[in-house]
Every structure is written in structure tokens, then in C-alpha cells.
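does this look right to u?? G3I version
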Amino acid sequence: MLMRSALCTSLLIAASAAVQQPASLKQSYQGDFYVGAAMNTAEITGQDQSSDALLLRQFNSISPENALKWEVVNPKPGQYDFSLGDQYVAFGVKHHLWIVGHNLVWHNQVPAWVFRDNNGKLLPRDALLKRMKDHIFREVGRYRGKIQSWDVVNEALNEDGTLRQSLWYKIIGPDYIAKAFEYAHEADPKAQLTYNDYNLASPAKLAGVVRLVKQLRAEGVPIDCVGMQTHDHMDSPTAEETDTAIRAIAATGVKVAISEMDIDVLPSPVQGNTADVSIRAAANPKLNPWPNGLPAAMQQQLAARYAALFRVFYKDRADISRVTLWGVTNAQSWKNNWPVPGRTNYPLLFDRQGKPTPSWYAVVKVPGEAEK
Ligand code: G3I
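got this back:
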């Protein structure tokens, strides 16, 4: 009899744990913000079915890791290839996901010819503006009403908050940013339009983005959102700094997207929270300390770090439109190859087999904790 009631009690506990434990990220944050993942080529084309199934169980928004970048869709003058982009958007439409377009105007992954004439000379302002407009109209127009949110301008700021001296800036001038937003708005008036950058929780760059957004809004430029990429490390930026940045950006009147989140646990040969892909460091076993699995103590620290950041996102949920992880599982993360090639990194919420990590368990619990 005693044994039977003990069994009943443990069954009851197990059942209530099952009820209380949300089964997915999207369920956990339902009504708060979308939870997204970036898709790579194998996921977009259906070659990685298990990752697609995991994505659909856990996430309700998608971003294309590379599929919609200029060099992919328009590698040569007059040559367009939207085959991957079309599959990406079809996947999102079929599964009713919040679809993000990434990105329209950037200094990386844009072919060199874009800035030059047939003789290799840099284009004058008007010709580059026309090229930018044609590109935006073609790409945004193709997915009008299907892609809900576009990263219109990507990484236009230096770390000190001034505007980066890219060829966009040098040829067109500082108003290239306003022009890109105006063209995107014309091409799809209903799409959410985002300025997207990394390291926005650092004070100087935060001041720069706030200045930029205030100026754009004062000029009536249609900007709706700022994407904080959030390619973080274990100790930086702090949760408080992240909160300060979200609050300061939201105070300008736009939404915030946590647009490319991951947390790097490996020793860093690079200073600060940059995601500048031109930076590279040489491989060295000291920089790859855990090739066969993350030690439990480190995993616990990583889970605590994830939970601290998601507590901030949950607190600030009224201002946050989505939280997107930059990949589905650790196996596919760009962090395995940047800034050092060939490392084993652990930056996301699912391990290399697609199993939830302790960080996942910590993240799905956050809204429940707050309600207690
Ligand atoms: O497509 C080639 C393939 O043919 C070749 O065999 C292989 C060998 O290295 O390279 C492949 O290209 C790689 C490409 O990703 C597609 O996988 C490039 O080398 C690699 O540099 C490129 O990296 C991408 C990076 O942007 C480049 O800028 C990452 O996947 C992508 O995650 C990353 O995403 C950026 C965001 O767009 C903007 N914010 C920062 C973020 C992280 O860097």
C-alpha cells in the first residue's frame, strides 16, 4: 500500500513537471516575442531534415544566415540567383513563421563590381544610388508581403559610434542609410525595417546608434527597429549593460530585435565583442580547450549567463520583437570557424546532436520564474 502511494506521488510529480516544463522556446515566450533561428543552406534545401524538424518544434521565426546576401542573389552584373532565397521564404510561408530578410546594404558579402563601372572606376553617387535602389526593389519586391522584417542596413557604425567609411559612405555620403530605408519602404510599405549591428551594448557604439536613429526619425525616415546582434562572450557585455542598451534604443521610439544571438565560451584572441568577419586569428590548441565536450561546470556557467540575458529580454519584452539565435545547433555555428578556424564551440541552445543543453532548460524556465 505504502509502495503504491509512493509510486502515485512520484507519478504525480512527474506529470506536473511535464505540465510545468514548457516543451519549446516558442511556447515559453508565446505572446512575449518571436524566438528565431538562422538557417544555413542544408536546412533551407531540406538536406538537414532533423535540424528542420528541431527548428519547427522550437522556433517561430527564421533568418537566412547567408542566402539573401548580395553576393548570393546577384553575384555578377545582370545575373540573379534567388533559388536559395525562394526555398527559404517558401519554408517560412509553409510553416507560418515570422520571416526575416538579411540583409540589403552591407560592406561585406557584396561583390566588388557593385561599386565600379565597366572600366573598374568607382561609380559616382547617382549611379551607386540607382544600383542600390534596383537591388532593394528587386529583392524586397520579390518577397513583398512574405518577408515581414528586413535588415536594411547592416553594420554601418564604427566601434566609437561614428559612421564606418565604407564605399557606400564614401561614394554616396552619410545619407545612403536614409535612402536605403526609403527604397525598402517603397518596395514593401508593410515590412518592418531594421538597422542591424553588433556590440551595441558598448557605451560609445550605443551612443552612436541612438544618435543615428534619432536623426533618421527626425527626418521622417521609415525605420522601425534596431537589431542588436548580441554575439556575446561569457563576461561581456553584462546583463545590466544589455538592459541599458535595450532601454536606450527603445526610448528613441523603435522596437529592438535581438537579431543574431550566440555566446562564445572559448578563449578569445580578439578584444571586445566584435563580429567583424575580416578579423582572423591562427589556430592554436590553447584556443580550442574542449574539442570533445564542454565540462559540466562550464556548461552550468553558460546556462547561468543565458538565463541572465533572457531575464533582461523577458523584463523588456514590451520593446522586443524577436530574439533570434544565430543557428539551430552548435554543429552549424559560424563560431566554430571564427575568429579561429576549426574550433569546437558551444554557443547555442542545442548540442551537436540537436539535444537541448542546460542553457535551453535555463532559458525556457525564465518566464515561469518571473510569474512566481
Ligand atoms: O560558400 C563557400 C563554400 O563554397 C566554401 O567551400 C567554404 C569554405 O570556407 O566557404 C563558403 O563560404 C562561407 C560562407 O559563410 C557560407 O558558409 C564563407 O567562407 C564564410 O566566411 C561565410 O561566413 C558567414 C559570415 O557571415 C560572412 O560574413 C557566416 O556563415 C554567417 O554566419 C555570418 O553572418 C554574419 C551576419 O551576416 C552579420 N553579422 C555577423 C554575422 C557573423 O559573422
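The first strand starts at residue 34 and ends at 39. idk if thats expected tbh
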